Structures are given as C-alpha cells and as structure tokens.
C-alpha cells in the first residue's frame, strides 16, 4: 500500500510539474543570474533550460537552508578566499564551489578521504604542494588549500577553455569530462547535462546546478563578504609550538585558535620544519608581535671537518654535493659572505662521521 502511494505521488508530481515550471521564471525570481552566468561563462539562455528550471523548483528551499548554514560557517574565511580568487584572476563567485564542496567547513572530510574547504584527495593535494601527513595536513589549512584550488582551477580552465567546464572537471575529473565532451560532440552546458544521454554522472550534473543556484541565491541576498566579523592573517611560528601556549599569549580560547588552524591535528605545531604558518585574527596581531618571539633560524653544523682546495669551475653547491653536506654550513664555517669562490682557495668542509671515515680510509 505504501509503495502504491509513493508511486501515485511521483506520477502526480510528474504530471503537474510541466504546468508549474511553465509558470515559474528563474530569471524573474533570480535576476542575479545574468551576473552569475557571465562569471562562469554560461549562456544566458540556460536560465530557461527545462532541466535547470526543474532543478531550481525542486531544490531551492534546500539550497537556501544550506546557504544560510554554510555562510555562518565561513563568514570569517570568505574575505580571504574572495581576495585570493580575485588577486589571481578568478571570479570571486568560485567561493560557491567551495560552499558546495564543504559547506565552508575547513575541517570537512568525505567518505572518499577528500578534506578541507576545497575537498582535496591526498593525491591531488600533493600535486599542488599541499603536505598531507598524520599530524599535519595542509588540506585543512584555509589559506594553503585556497591557493592550491586556485592553481588547480586555473589549470583546468587552461585545458578546457571555459570556467563552467573547469568546475565540472573539478568534480568528475579531467579524463571523465574530456570523454563526455568527445561523446557529446559539444562542450555546451545543456548538452553535457542532458539527463537522457547521461554524458556525465548525476552527481556532476547536479554539482554545477547547485553552484549556479547557490550563487544566484547568495548574490540575490546581496551578502557582502567584506561584512565578516574580522579579517584573518598568517604569521610564522617556531616548529614545536604548543597551541595552548600560543592561545594564552594571544589571550584567545585554544579551541577557537584550533578552529582557525585545523591542519594541526594534535594541537601542536610539528617540529619537522623550522617554522610553520598559523592563522590568527587581525585583532590579535599586535599581541602576537609583542609577546611571540620571531623564529630564529639556526643551522646545526656537522661535527667532522675535511679540507678542500677549490679547482677551476667548482661552485659551492657542487662542493657541498660532493661531500654530502650543505652549502650554508660551508659558508658559516668559512665565514664566507658570498658564494663566489676563487681557484686555489682553501675551505674547511663540515661533514658527517660516515663521510669523514670514507675520506680517511682513502688517505
């Protein structure tokens, strides 16, 4: 009985929808569509596409609720994201791609192990120089992941030539989109999204429609991203810094500081590198520079020494490579102010015990 009722409801919806859609004008309800479509390179006529109108009618309430929730999540991040997008020549409306991907949650993670604001999987993250480790994962870093997403989108746009195609490829992959364009014989959006032909998966077809609808809703509400509570800035801190200590120095709640820096998974800055970038609110910048010592780089010098006489054509880097040491260590030990060397110049080379033993054995 329940199955019959469900079928009857579906048939009724299908029967009345064409009449409702005929009376429903997306263009009239969302005049911001002209701006949104132009920013993504979509033809204006797509606003009357039957599949798109159907999607708007069936999903606008859900997307509006989602928009309000996501905007609260990301209102402090949006000025940064928008600024980087514009600075690198992309439309600031690509923030809606991030909204659809993650709901503006920098700690979001999917069942496919995609993470962060822009939902990078580990393999793609590493291609765009994001570090992905157990204790430190830059996919969760709003600044680093935004810059990586921009680089990825620029590369996709360079390959496919249109911004809506870049967004589609971001979701389904370059190979899948290229194959869809080949089979369709067109890269026009209505053709690629044809529900009957199914050139692209349903998830991807709805993905671009969600982005367009979210952008039309957001721009229609005239939400000014610059009205966020506070701007955020990045500062350099020493490797090994405890977030509890940093929070006390900044007079912040530790959880609030960690919320801005979800890439640090254990509440501590790893000690693998000399320094790391940490995001703090603008209002805490003065406290940071008053109370936090700037990282001072010290280079440990290898404990064993060998002598070397410079021959014609040798460079500091070549000598360092020969002795498996660092050029900077050679400069420090020999008090060199520049990297220029002269033929016959005597150098002391700091090396490891292994290298020292190997050269001693040769002698």
CATH-defined fold name of the largest domain: Lysozyme
Identify the strand order in the major beta sheet: 1-2
- Please tally the helical runs, counting DSSP H or I stretches of 4 or more residues: 18
Q: Tell me the count of domains.
A: 3
What would the principal axes of the Cα set say about the shape?
elongated
The ordered string of helix (H) and strand (E) elements is HHHHHHHHHHHHEHHEHEHHEH
* Radius of gyration using CA atoms only: 28 Å
Question: Average pLDDT value?
Answer: 87
Map the helices and strands.
Layout: H1 2-23, H2 26-29, H3 33-40, H4 50-74, H5 78-87, H6 95-102, H7 122-127, H8 142-160, H9 163-172, H10 174-184, H11 189-192, H12 202-220, E1 232-238, H13 243-250, H14 254-260, E2 275-281, H15 285-291, E3 304-309, H16 316-322, H17 327-333, E4 346-351, H18 353-362
Antiparallel strand pairs: 1-2, 3-4
């Amino acid at each position: 009985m329940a199955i019959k009722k469900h079928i009857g409801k579906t048939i009724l919806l299908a029967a009345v929808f064409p009449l409702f859609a005929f009376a429903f004008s997306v263009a009239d309800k969302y005049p911001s569509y002209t701006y949104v479509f132009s920013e993504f390179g979509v033809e204006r006529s797509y606003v009357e596409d039957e599949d798109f109108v159907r999607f708007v009618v069936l999903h606008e309430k859900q997307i509006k609720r989602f928009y309000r929730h996501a905007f609260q999540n990301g209102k402090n991040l949006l000025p940064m994201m928008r600024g980087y997008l514009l600075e690198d020549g992309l439309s600031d409306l690509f923030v809606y791609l991030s909204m659809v991907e993650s709901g503006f949650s920098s700690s979001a993670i999917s069942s496919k192990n995609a993470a962060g604001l822009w939902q990078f999987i580990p393999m793609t993250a590493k291609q765009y120089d994001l570090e992905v480790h157990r204790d430190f994962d830059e996919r969760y870093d709003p600044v680093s992941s935004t810059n990586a997403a921009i680089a990825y989108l620029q590369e996709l746009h360079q390959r496919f030539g249109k911004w809506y195609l870049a967004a589609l490829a971001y979701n389904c992959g370059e190979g899948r989109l290229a194959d869809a364009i080949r089979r369709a014989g067109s890269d026009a959006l209505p053709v690629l999204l044809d529900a009957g032909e199914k050139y692209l998966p349903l998830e991807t077809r709805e993905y671009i429609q969600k982005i367009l609808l979210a952008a039309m809703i957001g721009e229609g509400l005239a939400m000014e991203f610059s009205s966020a509570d506070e701007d955020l800035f990045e500062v350099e801190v020493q490797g090994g810094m405890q977030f509890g200590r940093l929070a006390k120095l900044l007079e912040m709640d530790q959880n609030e500081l960690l919320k801005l820096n979800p890439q640090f998974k254990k509440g501590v800055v790893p000690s693998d590198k000399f320094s790391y970038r940490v995001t703090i609110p603008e209002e805490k910048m003065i406290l940071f520079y008053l109370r936090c010592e700037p990282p001072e780089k010290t280079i440990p010098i290898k404990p064993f020494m060998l002598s070397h006489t410079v021959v014609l054509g040798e460079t500091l880097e070549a000598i360092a490579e020969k002795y498996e040491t660092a050029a900077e260590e050679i400069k420090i030990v020999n008090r060199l102010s520049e990297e220029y060397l002269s033929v016959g110049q005597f150098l002391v080379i700091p090396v490891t015990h292994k290298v020292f033993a190997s050269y001693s054995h040769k002698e």
